[in-house]
Fold these 2 entries.
Entry 1:
Amino acid sequence: MSLRIAVTAFVVLLLGAPSAPAAVSSEAGWGCTADSSKAGWTLLATPLPSSPYSPLVKETPGVIVHWNVRVGSGLSPLVQQLGVFRAVNGGADYTKVAESALETFGGNPEAEAFATRIPVQAGDYVGLHGPVETFVCGGQGGATAALFEGGIALGETKAFKTESEFRSPVSAVVEFDADGDGYGDSSQDRCPESALFQTECPLVALEIGDVEVKRGAILIEAGNNSTASIEAIGEVRWSVRPKSNHSAERSSKGKRVRVGLRTPGTQTVEPGAPVTLRVPLPESVKKRLAQLPRRRALQARIDVKATNLVPYVGTHELKIKLPGRKQP
């Protein structure tokens, strides 16, 4: 015996989405304005103990999303390259761990900012190098910079010397990267809850098709708009009146019975390819149905739950009648 119930629904419901920190950004680098240039220098800044501002990359994980070199008036345009450096050997040496594309600066300091995407760690330094000459800020007494008189290839480690009269005019905006996918949360990643998506996070859109009650199970056709893990969980309840000749006891509501229902596990559903969830009926439910005449029924309450890859969770609640099976 089976009962087919036509149920079609389209439901979007978000539950328990991961709580990502608010997307924040910070600026790395001293941000001074260049007033001269030096042939072949690679110059990066180290923190000043007396300054509340730090040239360090402070957020982790983080992503440099754009960078700028402030150039004073009267200087000829120069090609420059941002480098990211990591201290090694107790701070005596630095390794170049990342670099930007080559860009030309000079002429319009307010407009010169270039987009990039460079994942960084907390404690990294930004530095600047020009293939011909490197812009520098002079007359910066009291500042401490790390200087290497030459270019450094990506992955190379070099010993830097201390430079107290110059700073690097490079600055970089570092955005938080909550999911660690290498994209800045504010401007580059539209789904910071998941490393799998940089476009809008896909919502959960459950579609319920036919629901069929068979002798041993409930079959539920279910689909989703994106790849998801799907399952069904619910219960059946009924009351059993006490067997007694006493009128007061016969009129009581009796014992409340609750029996859980669920699929044996989860199934993976792909977009446009619905699956059939099989919810077995426990022996106690089948026994109770065998005691009920066909004009009566139990009601099963079942939640179909889909969890996509973000992960977002969507649910659809079903109320399903289970007709009695007692033979006349």
Entry 2:
Amino acid sequence: MKWRLSNPKDRAFRNFHIWRFSRGVKTTDATMAGELAAAVQVLSQLPYVGVVEKFNESSTRLNAYLRDAFPGFHSEPVVRNAFRTERTMADKLKQMQQELGPDLYRELTEANREDMTFYVQALRLFAESSTK
């Protein structure tokens, strides 16, 4: 992982999600802040936002959303190729810190600071959509 982080152009371990989402908006701001703003703009325009940690609830909401466009549509959530636990994100990050050690963990979290901000924004949108 350290060698992937050493290359600033390698996005696999460096704010991958904002990089991918920001491609949906044309922007001249190539900074991480600009990328984050573009990614949040794309996220906020989506008609549906799901969250992995709330997989079953996300699947139920997706069914409801698609039902309007596809009457009779129904799917059941199926978990494959996944390690499912009920651990919180904080628990997962704590375990990652223990496994990676403090220096590499700090480098990884710094390289993904904007992705974590994006994640918090996705959680907020998910929570807001449940009240609509």
